[in-house]
Amino acid sequence: MARKTGSDGKKTAQVLRVAATRLFAQYGYAAVSMRQIATEVGVQAGALYLYTPDKQTLLYQIMDGHMDDLLAAWRAERAKTPDDPMQQLEQFVRFHIRFHLNRGDEIFIAYMELRNLSAENFTLIEAKRREYEGLLGEILQAGNRLGHFSLCDIKLSSYAIIAMLTGVSTWYRGDGRLSLEKIEEVYLCMVRGLVAQGGARVGAASA
């Protein structure tokens, strides 16, 4: 059969991406076959090619969709924030933690499966990653310029902050010792310390 009875193409394509995301995160991209994905979705293997030309395209679509959602969500959030670098940074910290908290599979794929992208697809995804890092870099650069922050390298600071915040999704549990609000406050404290104690701005790199 080409499609599950009663389903439309858009819905099946979404189910396909969700199933592939789960399988890639659980077993790794290289170990998952199109037949395995088809079984998970509930269609014949040949039917998958109505929705994606190959497994490489599917991997790219998962990563690209994740980055598009992230960029759109942050821009919408950023529009609500006053033009003060510290307030923007605090908003970014809270946003990044909450956005990634329940996206463990997407995060795993975004970092661990980059090596399995074709050269062309890698370039496209990497450009969007750099775009997001650059949006944080703009905040840090503005804070440095106004004397609110003291960072010696904007790009490395952006990488460090994003890596630290993304890590919350790997260990956070809703029934853990600290509430999400308290965790955010702790991370805000650490980030404030990082930007304030970055050291002399020798040859500060631009975002």
Short note summarizing the structure:
This protein is mainly alpha-helical and 207 residues long. It has nine helices and no strands. The protein folds into two domains: 1-52, Homeodomain-like (Arc Repressor Mutant, subunit A), CATH 1.10.10; 55-196, Tetracycline Repressor, domain 2 (Orthogonal Bundle).
Quick tags:
Tetracycline Repressor, domain 2; Arc Repressor Mutant, subunit A; 207 residues; mainly alpha
Return the structural class. mainly alpha
Measured by DSSP, the beta-strand proportion falls in under 5%
Could you state the oligomeric state of the chains shown?
A: single chain
Low-confidence stretches: 1-6, 199-207
General description of the model:
There is one protein chain. The protein has 207 residues and is mainly alpha-helical. It has 2 domains: 1-52, Homeodomain-like (Arc Repressor Mutant, subunit A); 55-196, Orthogonal Bundle (Tetracycline Repressor, domain 2). The chain is built from 9 helices and no strands. It has helices at residues 9-27, 34-41, 55-78, 85-100, 104-112, 119-146, 154-166, 168-171, 180-196. Helix 1 (9-27) crosses helix 2 (34-41). The longest helix has 28 residues, at 119-146. The chain is elongated, with a radius of gyration of 20 Å. The relative contact order is 0.11. Residues 1-6 and 199-207 have low confidence and may be disordered.
